[in-house]
Fold this sequence. Notes:
Low-confidence stretches: none
Largest sheet: 9 strands, antiparallel
Structural class: alpha+beta
Distance between the termini: 44 Å
Number of helices: 13
Mean pLDDT: 95
CATH superfamily of the largest domain: ATP-grasp fold, B domain
CATH class of the largest domain: Alpha Beta
Order of helices and strands: EHEEHEHHHEHEEHHEEEEEHEEHHEHEEH
Number of domains: 3
Amino acid sequence: MKIGVIGGGQLGRMLALAGTPLGMNFAFLDPAPDACAAALGEHLRADYGDQAHLRQLAEEVDLVTFEFESVPAETVAFLSQFVPVYPSAEALRIARDRWFEKSMFKDLGIPTPAFADIQSQADLDAAVASIGLPAVLKTRTLGYDGKGQKVLRTPQDVVDTFAELGSVPCLLEGFVPFTGEVSLIAVRARDGETRFYPLVHNTHDSGILRLSIASTDHPLQALAEDYASRVLKQLDYVGVLAFEFFEVDGGLKANEIAPRVHNSGHWTTEGAECSQFENHLRAVAGLPLGSTAKVGESAMLNFIGEVPAVEKVIAIDDCHLHHYGKAFKAGRKVGHATVRSHDRATLDRQVKRVEALIKN
């Protein structure tokens, strides 16, 4: 089976690494000349709206998926005329737009922060008067890793901020006094079978995920699965979906979904019976889903800007390095490490050893 992937970054690369043992081959459509997934398959270098190359991709593969939500929904809709594409264009259309996304949560009875659609500075001023400060202004599409957003703490922060974010449609969200950030990785098959990985505790710095630790018997696991199930059913979703939540007053408030394999699920490669990457491919290919059970205690640490010396990383017991083959650049995710142990105390010590390498 040959899988087409829209996008050729590290997520596409890791999908191919998971699919190759299953006898799958890959073709990636990505405009970047140095797409890091290209080493794992055919690289069609073209813009995401290039219909000639999209037709070529559709003719070469059995089905198509995508590795990130910056892909236009129109691209997926076009491809779906010629070849099966999972997740669907409709799922992507909603997930990539924060207004559509939050509105869906509200319709499904999933708690969210207060939010408002912002089309102008006047809209922003009125929304701030209603929702209050602090608040977060985010572009409705394309923002990630702290990009395309601004925290508003004082009235002065509000002045000219719509223009500062590019005068594009935005979403204002009331600031949530959360006690923790968690994410749930879910996978849904073509026939509707759904499985969930354990909730993951996430730590961010400057909007970029730095550390994810898989939980054990989290008290909010069932609630998170309930909320995710509502979304998966609503979207008739196929594949892996990540759902990010804020822990608030003993419950959960929805932050956002990602219609793809997700950074906070990278620990599953070594830390679960079947990784998020393999399970995504199983789901979209119509194969039986794999077990999402944990294998010991696991954590994932991102390498931002550069990867520490390989020999130092792999010298740490049960520490697994994933180098993306990308040029080092400040603020860029260029790799990660997964650490695994039989007990949480040992895991915490391993995490600290990796963190020391990052700081040095």
